[in-house]
Amino acid sequence: MLDGLIVLVSDGPKRSAALADGLGLVGRCEVVSPDIRWDKLPGVSAVVTDLDLTRANAMTCLLALQRQAWGAGLPILCLSHRSSDRALRQARMLGASACLPVYAEPHVVVTALLNLINPAEGSLNASARQCAERAAAALEGLFGVAEASRFIDLQAVDGCVDPLLSALRDGGLARWLNTIRAHDNATYQHSLVVAGLAAQFASHIGFPEAQRQRLVRAALVHDIGKSRVPRRLLLKRGPLDSEEAAVMRTHTVLGFKLLSASATVDPAILDAVRHHHEMLDGSGYPDGLSGDAISDVVRFLTICDVYAALTERRSYKPAMSSAEALQVLHGMSGRVEPRFVHAFGKAVAQAG
Ligand SMILES: [Fe+2]
Ligand SMILES: [Fe+2]
Protein backbone atom coordinates (compact mmCIF):
# COMPACT_ATOMS: atom_id res chain seq x y z
CA MET A 1 0.00 0.00 0.00
CA LEU A 2 1.15 3.54 -0.76
CA ASP A 3 1.84 5.79 2.20
CA GLY A 4 0.25 9.00 0.97
CA LEU A 5 -3.16 9.84 -0.33
CA ILE A 6 -4.17 9.25 -3.96
CA VAL A 7 -6.47 12.05 -5.04
CA LEU A 8 -8.85 11.31 -7.88
CA VAL A 9 -10.24 14.58 -9.24
CA SER A 10 -13.37 13.89 -11.20
CA ASP A 11 -16.23 15.84 -12.69
CA GLY A 12 -18.17 12.59 -13.06
CA PRO A 13 -17.97 10.68 -9.75
CA LYS A 14 -20.30 7.93 -11.01
CA ARG A 15 -18.10 7.38 -14.06
CA SER A 16 -15.01 7.30 -11.82
CA ALA A 17 -16.39 4.87 -9.22
CA ALA A 18 -14.72 1.76 -10.67
CA LEU A 19 -11.43 3.61 -10.97
CA ALA A 20 -11.67 4.83 -7.35
CA ASP A 21 -12.17 1.20 -6.27
CA GLY A 22 -9.10 0.14 -8.27
CA LEU A 23 -6.95 2.91 -6.81
CA GLY A 24 -8.24 2.03 -3.35
CA LEU A 25 -6.57 -1.36 -3.67
CA VAL A 26 -3.11 0.22 -3.72
CA GLY A 27 -3.59 3.21 -1.41
CA ARG A 28 -6.04 5.46 0.37
CA CYS A 29 -8.03 7.14 -2.40
CA GLU A 30 -10.18 10.22 -2.10
CA VAL A 31 -12.47 11.31 -4.91
CA VAL A 32 -12.79 15.11 -5.06
CA SER A 33 -14.55 17.55 -7.37
CA PRO A 34 -12.60 20.04 -9.48
CA ASP A 35 -13.60 22.73 -6.99
CA ILE A 36 -11.20 21.23 -4.45
CA ARG A 37 -8.97 23.51 -2.35
CA TRP A 38 -5.58 21.85 -2.73
CA ASP A 39 -4.09 23.41 0.38
CA LYS A 40 -6.63 21.48 2.45
CA LEU A 41 -5.25 18.11 1.32
CA PRO A 42 -2.00 17.20 3.08
CA GLY A 43 0.03 14.05 2.42
CA VAL A 44 -0.85 13.61 -1.24
CA SER A 45 1.38 11.11 -3.06
CA ALA A 46 -0.28 11.19 -6.48
CA VAL A 47 -3.14 12.77 -8.39
CA VAL A 48 -5.30 11.23 -11.09
CA THR A 49 -7.57 13.58 -13.03
CA ASP A 50 -10.71 12.52 -14.85
CA LEU A 51 -11.80 15.92 -16.11
CA ASP A 52 -13.16 17.42 -19.28
CA LEU A 53 -10.45 20.01 -19.91
CA THR A 54 -12.76 22.12 -22.05
CA ARG A 55 -14.57 23.11 -18.83
CA ALA A 56 -13.36 26.24 -17.06
CA ASN A 57 -13.40 24.71 -13.57
CA ALA A 58 -11.14 21.87 -14.78
CA MET A 59 -8.56 24.37 -16.01
CA THR A 60 -8.78 26.40 -12.78
CA CYS A 61 -8.37 23.23 -10.73
CA LEU A 62 -5.24 22.08 -12.57
CA LEU A 63 -3.68 25.53 -12.57
CA ALA A 64 -4.21 25.73 -8.80
CA LEU A 65 -2.64 22.27 -8.44
CA GLN A 66 0.37 23.41 -10.45
CA ARG A 67 0.78 26.47 -8.24
CA GLN A 68 1.15 24.41 -5.09
CA ALA A 69 4.77 24.14 -3.97
CA TRP A 70 4.32 20.46 -3.23
CA GLY A 71 3.15 20.00 -6.79
CA ALA A 72 6.78 19.88 -7.93
CA GLY A 73 7.56 16.29 -8.82
CA LEU A 74 4.11 15.10 -7.77
CA PRO A 75 2.94 12.40 -10.19
CA ILE A 76 -0.17 13.62 -12.02
CA LEU A 77 -1.88 11.14 -14.31
CA CYS A 78 -4.37 12.78 -16.64
CA LEU A 79 -7.20 10.74 -18.16
CA SER A 80 -7.75 12.46 -21.46
CA HIS A 81 -11.29 12.82 -22.81
CA ARG A 82 -9.95 13.69 -26.25
CA SER A 83 -6.96 12.23 -28.08
CA SER A 84 -6.08 15.19 -30.30
CA ASP A 85 -2.56 16.53 -30.29
CA ARG A 86 -3.88 19.79 -28.88
CA ALA A 87 -5.67 18.10 -25.99
CA LEU A 88 -2.55 16.16 -25.00
CA ARG A 89 -0.35 19.26 -25.25
CA GLN A 90 -2.84 21.10 -23.09
CA ALA A 91 -2.75 18.37 -20.44
CA ARG A 92 1.06 18.46 -20.41
CA MET A 93 1.07 22.24 -20.10
CA LEU A 94 -1.24 21.88 -17.13
CA GLY A 95 1.30 19.67 -15.40
CA ALA A 96 0.30 16.11 -16.38
CA SER A 97 3.23 13.70 -15.91
CA ALA A 98 1.48 11.18 -18.18
CA CYS A 99 -1.82 10.84 -20.04
CA LEU A 100 -4.06 7.86 -20.70
CA PRO A 101 -7.35 7.79 -22.57
CA VAL A 102 -10.37 8.17 -20.30
CA TYR A 103 -11.63 4.72 -21.30
CA ALA A 104 -8.44 3.05 -19.98
CA GLU A 105 -9.36 0.19 -17.68
CA PRO A 106 -8.81 0.76 -13.94
CA HIS A 107 -6.00 -1.82 -13.69
CA VAL A 108 -4.13 -0.05 -16.50
CA VAL A 109 -4.49 3.31 -14.76
CA VAL A 110 -3.29 1.80 -11.48
CA THR A 111 -0.25 0.21 -13.16
CA ALA A 112 0.63 3.46 -14.94
CA LEU A 113 0.29 5.41 -11.69
CA LEU A 114 2.47 2.98 -9.75
CA ASN A 115 5.05 3.25 -12.53
CA LEU A 116 5.01 7.02 -12.20
CA ILE A 117 5.43 6.84 -8.44
CA ASN A 118 8.00 4.06 -8.44
CA PRO A 119 9.40 3.25 -11.88
CA ALA A 120 9.25 -0.53 -12.15
CA GLU A 121 12.44 -2.46 -12.41
CA GLY A 122 13.12 -3.28 -16.00
CA SER A 123 11.37 -0.18 -17.26
CA LEU A 124 13.22 2.72 -18.83
CA ASN A 125 15.11 5.29 -16.80
CA ALA A 126 13.50 8.71 -16.31
CA SER A 127 14.77 10.40 -19.46
CA ALA A 128 14.16 7.38 -21.67
CA ARG A 129 10.71 7.03 -20.15
CA GLN A 130 10.00 10.63 -21.02
CA CYS A 131 11.07 9.83 -24.58
CA ALA A 132 8.64 6.91 -24.61
CA GLU A 133 5.86 9.17 -23.35
CA ARG A 134 6.70 11.81 -25.97
CA ALA A 135 6.67 9.19 -28.73
CA ALA A 136 3.33 7.80 -27.49
CA ALA A 137 1.82 11.29 -27.24
CA ALA A 138 3.04 12.18 -30.76
CA LEU A 139 1.57 8.97 -32.14
CA GLU A 140 -1.67 9.54 -30.30
CA GLY A 141 -1.80 13.02 -31.86
CA LEU A 142 -1.14 11.57 -35.30
CA PHE A 143 -3.98 9.05 -34.97
CA GLY A 144 -6.21 11.80 -33.59
CA VAL A 145 -5.59 13.94 -36.68
CA ALA A 146 -6.11 10.93 -38.95
CA GLU A 147 -9.43 10.23 -37.25
CA ALA A 148 -10.65 13.78 -37.60
CA SER A 149 -9.43 14.91 -41.02
CA ARG A 150 -9.24 13.73 -44.60
CA PHE A 151 -5.44 13.65 -44.74
CA ILE A 152 -2.50 13.86 -42.41
CA ASP A 153 0.90 15.46 -42.51
CA LEU A 154 3.38 12.62 -42.30
CA GLN A 155 5.99 14.99 -40.96
CA ALA A 156 4.14 14.68 -37.65
CA VAL A 157 5.46 11.14 -37.40
CA ASP A 158 8.95 12.57 -36.95
CA GLY A 159 7.80 13.62 -33.49
CA CYS A 160 7.86 9.90 -32.64
CA VAL A 161 11.04 8.81 -34.42
CA ASP A 162 13.67 10.74 -32.44
CA PRO A 163 12.26 10.04 -28.96
CA LEU A 164 11.89 6.36 -29.87
CA LEU A 165 15.46 6.02 -31.12
CA SER A 166 16.80 7.92 -28.07
CA ALA A 167 14.84 5.71 -25.69
CA LEU A 168 16.15 2.58 -27.42
CA ARG A 169 19.70 3.91 -27.35
CA ASP A 170 19.47 4.75 -23.62
CA GLY A 171 17.44 1.80 -22.38
CA GLY A 172 17.56 -0.95 -25.02
CA LEU A 173 14.74 -2.85 -26.70
CA ALA A 174 13.62 -5.00 -23.75
CA ARG A 175 13.03 -1.93 -21.56
CA TRP A 176 11.31 -0.09 -24.39
CA LEU A 177 8.92 -3.01 -24.82
CA ASN A 178 8.27 -3.24 -21.05
CA THR A 179 7.46 0.45 -20.89
CA ILE A 180 5.31 0.60 -23.98
CA ARG A 181 3.34 -2.49 -23.01
CA ALA A 182 2.02 -0.54 -20.00
CA HIS A 183 0.36 1.88 -22.45
CA ASP A 184 -3.34 1.31 -22.63
CA ASN A 185 -4.37 2.07 -26.19
CA ALA A 186 -3.80 -1.19 -28.03
CA THR A 187 -3.22 0.41 -31.43
CA TYR A 188 -0.63 2.96 -30.27
CA GLN A 189 0.98 0.35 -28.07
CA HIS A 190 1.19 -2.08 -30.98
CA SER A 191 2.62 0.55 -33.36
CA LEU A 192 5.28 1.59 -30.84
CA VAL A 193 6.21 -2.04 -30.18
CA VAL A 194 6.49 -2.76 -33.93
CA ALA A 195 8.58 0.40 -34.37
CA GLY A 196 10.94 -0.62 -31.53
CA LEU A 197 11.33 -4.09 -33.05
CA ALA A 198 11.91 -2.59 -36.50
CA ALA A 199 14.61 -0.26 -35.15
CA GLN A 200 16.37 -3.16 -33.41
CA PHE A 201 16.06 -5.38 -36.49
CA ALA A 202 17.45 -2.65 -38.76
CA SER A 203 20.42 -2.04 -36.45
CA HIS A 204 21.15 -5.73 -36.21
CA ILE A 205 21.35 -6.20 -39.95
CA GLY A 206 23.40 -3.04 -40.37
CA PHE A 207 20.92 -0.78 -42.16
CA PRO A 208 22.33 2.69 -42.76
CA GLU A 209 20.73 5.30 -40.46
CA ALA A 210 18.46 6.77 -43.17
CA GLN A 211 17.04 3.36 -44.03
CA ARG A 212 16.61 2.51 -40.37
CA GLN A 213 14.61 5.68 -39.83
CA ARG A 214 12.48 4.93 -42.87
CA LEU A 215 11.65 1.47 -41.52
CA VAL A 216 10.77 2.99 -38.13
CA ARG A 217 8.52 5.60 -39.79
CA ALA A 218 6.78 2.87 -41.77
CA ALA A 219 6.31 0.84 -38.58
CA LEU A 220 4.85 3.78 -36.69
CA VAL A 221 2.17 4.41 -39.30
CA HIS A 222 1.63 0.90 -40.66
CA ASP A 223 -1.76 0.62 -38.93
CA ILE A 224 -2.79 4.29 -39.33
CA GLY A 225 -5.84 3.04 -41.29
CA LYS A 226 -7.20 1.71 -37.98
CA SER A 227 -7.99 5.34 -37.14
CA ARG A 228 -10.83 4.89 -39.67
CA VAL A 229 -12.04 1.51 -38.42
CA PRO A 230 -15.07 1.73 -36.10
CA ARG A 231 -13.87 2.19 -32.53
CA ARG A 232 -16.18 -0.56 -31.27
CA LEU A 233 -14.10 -3.08 -33.25
CA LEU A 234 -10.81 -1.71 -31.96
CA LEU A 235 -12.07 -1.86 -28.38
CA LYS A 236 -13.92 -5.16 -28.64
CA ARG A 237 -13.07 -7.37 -25.68
CA GLY A 238 -12.99 -10.61 -27.61
CA PRO A 239 -12.02 -12.06 -30.98
CA LEU A 240 -13.65 -10.50 -34.05
CA ASP A 241 -16.26 -12.49 -35.97
CA SER A 242 -15.71 -13.00 -39.69
CA GLU A 243 -17.68 -9.91 -40.71
CA GLU A 244 -15.85 -7.74 -38.21
CA ALA A 245 -12.51 -9.20 -39.27
CA ALA A 246 -13.30 -8.25 -42.88
CA VAL A 247 -13.95 -4.65 -41.78
CA MET A 248 -10.73 -4.67 -39.77
CA ARG A 249 -8.79 -5.86 -42.82
CA THR A 250 -9.80 -2.68 -44.66
CA HIS A 251 -7.34 -0.75 -42.46
CA THR A 252 -4.59 -1.44 -45.01
CA VAL A 253 -6.38 0.29 -47.90
CA LEU A 254 -7.87 2.97 -45.63
CA GLY A 255 -4.38 3.83 -44.37
CA PHE A 256 -3.00 3.85 -47.91
CA LYS A 257 -5.73 6.25 -49.08
CA LEU A 258 -5.29 8.47 -46.05
CA LEU A 259 -1.56 8.81 -46.66
CA SER A 260 -1.86 9.01 -50.47
CA ALA A 261 -3.98 12.14 -50.01
CA SER A 262 -1.12 13.73 -48.08
CA ALA A 263 1.67 15.54 -49.86
CA THR A 264 5.03 13.91 -50.63
CA VAL A 265 4.75 10.63 -48.82
CA ASP A 266 7.67 8.28 -49.27
CA PRO A 267 6.44 5.52 -51.66
CA ALA A 268 8.15 2.88 -49.47
CA ILE A 269 5.95 3.94 -46.56
CA LEU A 270 2.80 3.84 -48.70
CA ASP A 271 3.84 0.36 -49.82
CA ALA A 272 4.34 -0.75 -46.20
CA VAL A 273 1.00 0.65 -45.05
CA ARG A 274 -0.91 -1.07 -47.84
CA HIS A 275 0.95 -4.36 -47.95
CA HIS A 276 2.13 -5.29 -44.47
CA HIS A 277 -0.43 -8.15 -44.35
CA GLU A 278 0.62 -9.63 -47.71
CA MET A 279 2.24 -13.09 -47.58
CA LEU A 280 4.90 -14.46 -49.91
CA ASP A 281 2.62 -17.33 -51.00
CA GLY A 282 -0.14 -14.91 -52.06
CA SER A 283 -2.43 -15.73 -49.14
CA GLY A 284 -2.36 -12.24 -47.63
CA TYR A 285 -4.38 -9.08 -48.23
CA PRO A 286 -5.48 -6.66 -49.61
CA ASP A 287 -3.97 -7.35 -53.06
CA GLY A 288 -2.91 -10.99 -52.76
CA LEU A 289 0.64 -10.09 -53.76
CA SER A 290 3.22 -12.85 -53.82
CA GLY A 291 6.98 -13.40 -54.12
CA ASP A 292 8.99 -10.59 -55.62
CA ALA A 293 6.00 -8.26 -55.72
CA ILE A 294 6.53 -7.84 -51.98
CA SER A 295 9.38 -5.46 -51.19
CA ASP A 296 12.06 -6.07 -48.57
CA VAL A 297 10.79 -3.20 -46.40
CA VAL A 298 7.38 -4.85 -46.31
CA ARG A 299 8.91 -8.27 -45.57
CA PHE A 300 10.86 -6.82 -42.63
CA LEU A 301 7.83 -5.02 -41.31
CA THR A 302 5.54 -8.03 -41.59
CA ILE A 303 7.87 -10.08 -39.41
CA CYS A 304 7.97 -7.34 -36.73
CA ASP A 305 4.18 -6.99 -36.97
CA VAL A 306 3.45 -10.71 -36.57
CA TYR A 307 5.91 -11.04 -33.67
CA ALA A 308 4.40 -7.98 -31.94
CA ALA A 309 0.84 -9.30 -32.33
CA LEU A 310 1.78 -12.73 -30.95
CA THR A 311 3.58 -11.31 -27.91
CA GLU A 312 0.80 -8.86 -27.06
CA ARG A 313 -1.75 -9.74 -24.39
CA ARG A 314 -5.39 -9.19 -25.24
CA SER A 315 -8.45 -9.71 -23.08
CA TYR A 316 -9.19 -12.84 -25.12
CA LYS A 317 -5.67 -14.26 -25.48
CA PRO A 318 -2.53 -14.48 -23.35
CA ALA A 319 0.77 -13.10 -24.61
CA MET A 320 3.13 -15.64 -26.17
CA SER A 321 6.71 -15.74 -24.94
CA SER A 322 9.39 -14.51 -27.32
CA ALA A 323 10.54 -18.10 -27.96
CA GLU A 324 7.00 -19.25 -28.79
CA ALA A 325 6.43 -16.31 -31.14
CA LEU A 326 9.70 -16.99 -32.95
CA GLN A 327 8.71 -20.62 -33.29
CA VAL A 328 5.43 -19.56 -34.93
CA LEU A 329 7.34 -17.27 -37.31
CA HIS A 330 9.75 -20.09 -38.22
CA GLY A 331 6.70 -22.24 -38.94
CA MET A 332 5.41 -19.66 -41.41
CA SER A 333 8.06 -20.39 -44.04
CA GLY A 334 6.61 -19.90 -47.47
CA ARG A 335 4.58 -17.00 -46.12
CA VAL A 336 7.34 -14.86 -44.57
CA GLU A 337 10.98 -14.60 -45.60
CA PRO A 338 12.92 -17.33 -43.67
CA ARG A 339 16.29 -15.53 -43.90
CA PHE A 340 14.77 -12.45 -42.33
CA VAL A 341 13.03 -14.50 -39.64
CA HIS A 342 16.39 -16.02 -38.75
CA ALA A 343 18.04 -12.57 -38.56
CA PHE A 344 15.09 -11.17 -36.63
CA GLY A 345 15.37 -13.97 -34.04
CA LYS A 346 19.04 -13.08 -33.53
CA ALA A 347 18.21 -9.37 -33.26
CA VAL A 348 15.59 -10.03 -30.58
CA ALA A 349 17.83 -12.48 -28.70
CA GLN A 350 20.68 -9.97 -28.77
CA ALA A 351 18.40 -7.39 -27.16
CA GLY A 352 17.79 -9.76 -24.23
FE1 LIG B 1 -2.08 -4.08 -39.77
FE1 LIG C 1 0.04 -4.13 -37.14
UniProtKB/TrEMBL annotation:
Residues 187-307 form the HD domain. GO terms for molecular function: phosphoric diester hydrolase activity. Residues 165-352 form the HD-GYP domain. This is HD domain-containing protein. It comes from Methylobacterium planeticum.
